Amino acid sequence: MPLPYAANVPSYSDAGFIPIHFATQVNVKYYFETLLPRITNTKFQTQLLNKGDKVVIPQRPDIAWRDGQVAKESDVDIPVSEPVEFQISRILDYDFVIPDVLEKQSGVDVGAEGVQDTTLSMDGQLQQRLFADLVDKADDANMGATAGKVGAGYNLGTAASPLGVNTENAILFVTAFRSVLAEQKAAKPGMWVILPEILRYKLINSDLRKAMEMGDDKSVLRTQIVGSLDGTMIYSSPQLATERVEVSGTEVTAYAVIAGNLDAITFCAQLNKAEKLRYHLFMGDRYRGTVVYDWKVVKPQGLCVAWVYAKAES
Questions:
Q1: Which CATH number goes with the domain that contains 39?
Q2: d(Cα 62, Cα 23) in Å, to the nearest integer?
Q3: Which among 260, 235, 245, 232 is positioned nearest to 310, based on CA atoms?
Q4: End-to-end Cα separation, the chain, in angstroms
Q5: Which among 305, 263, 301 has a CA at the least distance from the CA of 183?
Q6: Within 13 Å, how many C-alpha atoms sit on residue 187's CB side?
Q7: Helix, strand, or coil here: 136?
Q8: pTM for the predicted model, two decimal places
Q9: 65-115 pLDDT, tens per residue?
Q10: Which of 150, 147, 160, 120 lies closest to 259, judged by CA?
Q11: What's the total number of domains in the chain?
Q12: Whole-angstrom Cα distance, residue 307 to residue 253?
C-alpha cells in the first residue's frame, strides 16, 4: 500500500518524481502436470497427422483350443478379428495479436511467452476432455458395483451410488484395479490409476506399511507422482470428471477414477500448423496455431472406471 501522507503534502510518486519500474522477469504460471503420455500409447502417431486421417488397426485374432482325439482329423479354423478404426476429428486453436506499440513497451517477449503458455497449458485442456470421454468406454466387467470378469467381486461404485473411500480402505481400493485387469488377462507392466487430489491425500496418509506387504520393494514413492503400489503407477489430477450425488442424505462430489494399462488408449496430438504473420488491421504481429488430436480406446478390457467419493474418517 502507498505511504501515508499528512494533509496537503503532495505524493512524489503521483507527481512522477518517484519512477515506476516494471520487473524484467514474468511471474511464474501454473500448469497441469503432463499425464497423457504416461497413460496412453502413441503407436500410430506418425500415421495420424491431419484432421480426417484414418488408420485401420488390425487386431490379433483369438485362437481356440479344443479337446482332440488320437488319429482323428481336427476341424480347421480360419482365425479372423474385427479391426479397430481410428480417425482424427478434434482440433484446438489459438489466435492472438500483439500490437507493435505494446511489444515495444513491454519488457518481455509477449508473443513468444504467449505461444509457450498456450503450448504448456494445452495438456490441461486435453486431460479434461479425455477423462470425461472415458467414463463409459471401459469394458462392462471393469466398472460398477460388481466389477471383475471372473468373480464380480470388486465394488468400483457407480455414478448414482459411488464407493466411499477414506484412509482405512484407500489401499484396498487402489489395489483392486490390478485384480480387475488380471481377470481380463490385462494385468501387465504399465498399469496406472489416476486419483483426484482428495483421494491422493487420503492414500498417502493411510497405513503405508501395508504397501510393503503387497510385494512392492519401493512401497509408495514420495514424488511428484504419487508412486507405485502393487505394480500400478499412481497419478493424481484435478481434471477427472465429477458428479454431485446424494449419499445417505448428504450431497457429495463423486469422482470418475480412471485406471488401465498402456495398451488401452491410443492417443495422437500433432501441432499441425503454427505461424507468425503481420496483422492486417493495425501494426502488430499475429500468432496462430492449430493442434490436431484425437484418441481411441482400442482395448476396453484394459481400462477401468470407478465412481468414488471422499468418505469421512471414522
A1: 3.90.1690
A2: 64
A3: 245
A4: 47
A5: 301
A6: 15
A7: coil
A8: 0.74
A9: 777 777 777 777 777 777 767 677 788 888 888 888 877 766 666 667 766
A10: 147
A11: 1
A12: 10
Give me 200's grid cell: 491422493
Which residues are within 8 A (CB) of 78 and not within 5 positions of it... i.e. 6 or more apart?
none
**In a 10 Å sphere around its CB, with 0-12 CB exposed, 13-18 middle and 19+ buried, how is residue 233 labelled?**
buried
> Can you give the pLDDT at residue 87?
74
Q: Which residues contact 176 (CB under 8 A, 6 or more apart)?
A: 147, 154, 156
Q: Are 229 and 121 in contact (CB under 8 A)?
A: no
Q: Write down the pLDDT at residue 274.
A: 78
Burial (CB count within 10 angstroms: exposed 0-12, middle 13-18, buried 19+), residue 125: middle
Give the single-character DSSP code of 248: T
Q: Give me the chain's average pLDDT, please.
A: 79
151 CB-near residues (< 8 Å, 6+ apart):
183
Q: Residue 233: which domain range?
A: 1-314
- Say what the pLDDT of residue 301 is: 95
